[in-house]
Design goal:
The protein has 121 residues and is α+β, with helices and mostly antiparallel strands. It contains 3 helices and 6 strands; from the N terminus they run αββαβαβββ. The protein has a 6-stranded mixed β-sheet. It binds zinc ion. This is Proteasome lid subunit RPN8/RPN11, contains Jab1/MPN metalloenzyme (JAMM) motif.
């Protein structure tokens, strides 16, 4: 996920994570159709296709990630406004400092609640 975000610089990268029981097992690199350093969006047809492939693997959407090439890992007002999957964890990979920084949130309505990420799967 971090590698994908670094490869897409200076643009924001985005993608999906699928797995079971909230545990991410598969990464789905998606195209940022906005090709922007400060915004991202995914083609809804690409999302549908990925969701179908996840189902075939017996997995479900557990996370949605995107990068902030120059900003901290905090959700922007747009990130919150366009968060359509309340059951998914929203991960933001910040590349603003030397070490990548990951923020993880559950976004419900207009609120972003921080989530804990464990690297153990
Ligand atoms: Zn963002």
């Amino acid at each position: 996920m971090i590698r994908h975000c670094m490869e897409e610089r200076p643009f924001e990268a985005c993608g999906l994570l699928s797995g079971r029981n909230g545990c991410a097992e598969t990464i789905w690199r998606m195209e940022n159709i906005e090709k922007s350093p400060v915004a991202f969006s995914m083609d809804s047809r690409h999302i549908q296709k990925a969701l179908q492939k996840m189902a075939l693997k017996g997995e479900a959407l557990v996370g949605i990630y995107h990068s902030h090439p120059t900003a901290p890992p905090l959700p922007s007002p747009e990130d919150i406004a366009y968060a359509y999957y309340p059951e998914a964890a929203y991960l933001i990979v910040s590349l603003a400092s030397k070490q990548p920084n990951i923020g993880c949130y559950r976004i419900v309505g207009s609120r972003a609640l921080p989530l804990r990420v464990e690297l153990r799967c």
